[in-house]
Specification:
Length: 364
């Protein structure tokens, strides 16, 4: 079979999966997808939304695209983020043939972001006692049932892409970010927990802890647009809450203070940045837009936009970002941000607060 502009033959991996690329074919439709036959497996790319073939614009997954460019260039797409991920995967398959079968199986052989993510997570959770197909069924059921789950997936993906300087492509976050994987598995566990299926939720928690080294109790409450960077060693307790747009790094602990029961874990409000190794203990509030520096131990409530550091943590400054900007967006973990972004605290006196340092993220 000769190669044309609309059809390329890929021979990939030891299974010799033959894949037909229908990108760019204006007449392609679901009925054009080749069926399984006795000789080999044929997997067709789903046709692009507008019958246009994306040009290879760089190595790897292609030239990075900003959220603004995404909204502008794919504004007519029903799911712009999924369309971008598909296009990045297509470029990646062309640039790195050894990854082609992986990209086909995880992304290009699926019709939606939910289906692709369900397949990917299920393959990571599979064990001798619980098959991948069972996890896929549960994930798809939960995503279909919960609009909040579907929305959170996209916001979490964009959080990784926009806040992690090492992640320049949405497809990269979907494939490789174990913080994102652990967070979306938690969302399934929470869905199960709230429906009374608690043994299965706890079993999933144990698998996530084993697979990703992240331990999040299914009963915890976590908002959307959350970024867990590196993720290893993160622990979030049963009665903890994490707001929207929060960023945290590895070895963060949101724990209790002992053997007490009831509501005993921290409440992390919107836009908070928790540095690597930060520990917050007890039923205390870390206010909107606060920053807890690396390896600090927080035992008392933290006011909005305060910077705390040390063991035990003490207030060392007040963040002064522009309105609508959170420290979780900027990901600047230096306590030296006191230049244009922090007002140093010189004493513990009850002096009148400067209005320019008030809660600038209130409208988010």
């Amino acid at each position: 079979m000769s190669k044309t502009n609309h059809e390329k033959l890929w021979l990939v991996d030891h299974k010799r999966i033959v894949t037909m690329n229908h990108f760019g074919s204006e007449n392609s439709s679901a009925s054009d997808i080749p069926k399984y036959n006795t000789n080999h497996t044929r997997i067709a790319f789903p046709p692009p939304l507008y019958g246009k073939e994306l040009q290879v614009t760089g190595p790897g997954f292609g030239s990075p695209i900003t959220p603004e460019e995404l909204a502008r260039s794919l504004r007519e797409a029903s799911d712009p983020l999924w369309e971008l991920i598909r296009r990045e995967a297509e470029i990646g398959a062309r640039n790195e043939p050894h990854l082609a079968s992986t990209l086909f199986a995880i992304i290009l052989n699926h019709r939606s972001l939910e289906d692709a993510l369900s397949f990917h997570l299920a393959s990571k959770l599979e064990s001798g006692y619980f098959q991948a197909t069972q996890w896929m069924e549960l994930l798809r059921e939960a995503m279909s049932d919960s609009e909040a789950y579907r929305s959170a997936i996209r916001k979490d993906l964009m959080a990784v892409t926009t806040r992690d300087p090492a992640t320049q492509h949405a497809v990269q976050a979907l494939l490789f970010s174990k913080g994102f994987h652990a967070l979306e598995c938690y969302r399934l566990a929470n869905w199960l927990w709230e429906r009374g299926r608690r043994p299965l939720a706890l079993y999933l928690q144990s698998l996530v802890s084993k697979s990703f080294a992240v331990d999040i109790h299914p009963a915890a409450k976590i908002g959307s647009g959350v970024f867990i960077d590196h993720a290893t060693g993160v622990v979030i307790g049963e009665t903890a809450t994490v707001g929207n747009h929060v960023s945290m790094l590895h070895n963060v602990t949101l724990g209790g203070t002992g053997k007490e029961t009831g509501d005993r874990h921290p409440k992390i409000h919107d836009g908070v940045l928790l540095g690597a190794g930060a520990t917050v203990l007890g039923n205390i509030v870390v206010g909107r837009g606060a920053y807890v520096s690396a390896c600090s131990v927080v035992l008392k409530p933290v006011e909005p936009f305060m910077v705390v550091s040390g063991v035990p943590a003490k207030v060392i400054g007040v963040l002064t970002y522009q309105q609508g900007v959170f420290p979780s967006f900027e990901m600047d973990q230096r306590v030296s941000v006191c230049g244009m972004f922090m007002k140093p605290i010189l004493s513990d006196s009850n002096e009148e607060k400067d209005e320019s340092f008030m809660d600038y993220g209130a409208h988010i």
